[in-house]
């Protein structure tokens, strides 16, 4: 009797990116009165080289051409991963320039499988150390809205 094929989909984490992926299938457990005349072919392994490259980008805009000292502005900062690989645990940062006092208003994440996710500490985006995107799969986008008060001109 022909057996149906078994299909397995696996997500490779960045920790596994050195080397290749080996996947082994085995058949065993024959019951009487059946026996296996060629047990040497009861295991098969497929080895595949891992491609762990991600194409990351960032875009930032506040939608205005000028700002005024004493005023406010909101920036949209969007980080994207167009793949082909996941970039989980990527550190992102957006340190405000001189004359800006900023806070994170929101974070939203969409796309990818499993879905992209916002960091546990989004406020760290505004620090030199940045914040970590725990899940940043191919096709994922993470967008922050950053509200800033302006104390200097030319920002």
Quickly list its features:
4-stranded antiparallel sheet, 0% helix, 155 residues, mainly beta, two-stranded antiparallel ribbon
Distance between the termini: 73 Å
Tell me, rounded to a whole number, the average pLDDT.
87
Please provide the ordered H/E string of secondary-structure elements: EEEEEEEE
Spatially, the strands of the biggest sheet line up as 3-4-8-6
Secondary-structure content class: mainly beta
Number of helices: 0
Instruction: Tell how many strands the DSSP assignment holds.
Output: 8
Q: Portion of residues in helices?
A: under 10%
Q: Summarize the biggest pleated sheet.
A: 4 strands, antiparallel
The unreliable regions are none
How much of the residues is beta strand, in percent? 35-45%
Radius of gyration: 25 Å
Give the CA-based shape. Answer: rod-shaped
């Amino acid at each position: 009797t022909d057996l149906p094929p078994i299909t397995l989909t696996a997500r490779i984490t960045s920790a596994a990116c050195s080397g290749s992926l080996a996947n082994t299938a085995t058949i065993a457990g024959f019951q009487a009165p059946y026996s296996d005349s060629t047990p040497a072919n009861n295991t098969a392994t497929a080895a595949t080289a891992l491609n762990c490259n991600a194409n990351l980008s960032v875009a930032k805009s506040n939608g205005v051409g000028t700002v005024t000292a004493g005023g406010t502005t909101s920036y949209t900062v969007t980080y994207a991963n167009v793949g082909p690989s996941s970039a989980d645990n990527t550190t992102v940062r957006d340190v405000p320039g001189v004359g800006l006092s900023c806070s994170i208003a929101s974070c939203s994440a969409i796309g990818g499988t499993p879905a992209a996710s916002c960091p546990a500490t989004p406020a760290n985006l505004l620090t030199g150390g940045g914040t970590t995107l725990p899940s940043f799969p191919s096709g994922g986008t993470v967008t922050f809205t950053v509200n800033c008060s302006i104390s200097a001109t030319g920002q």
